[in-house]
Task: structure prediction
Amino acid sequence: MKGQWFAISAIFIAFSVFAVSSNLRSFNAVDTAGTSSYNEDYHFANLKQGLQRTIQLSGNTCEELSENLNDYIYFFQLSKGRIGYAVDVFYTINDCTSKTVTFDLILLQSDRYQVWEGIRPSVE
Result:
């Protein structure tokens, strides 16, 4: 009789430990869904890559280079503005034939983060 109660108790304890560990498993899991919503770095890298690609594909005239950069920036501002990002780009065309452009400021901003490269103007 003692052996039967031992087996029943062992099964009951094993089931109880399994039930408790199953309930606590969700507390130990890493939530990766929250970090995937922060895409500022991705959009910033995409903006920089798009600017460089626009410079490469533009012609050798200052007007075409400036127009293409302004169009790309405008398109990027519209597309990212719809999902809550503010984009600002300030640039200077140094030489049109060699397509040398200096980006004074590249800024991407959301409610949570600001990602920028260059010199930010001071606000007084």
The chain is about 55% helix and 20% strand. The first helix runs from residue 2 to 28. Strands lie at 86-95, 100-109, 114-118. The first strand starts at residue 86 and ends at 95.
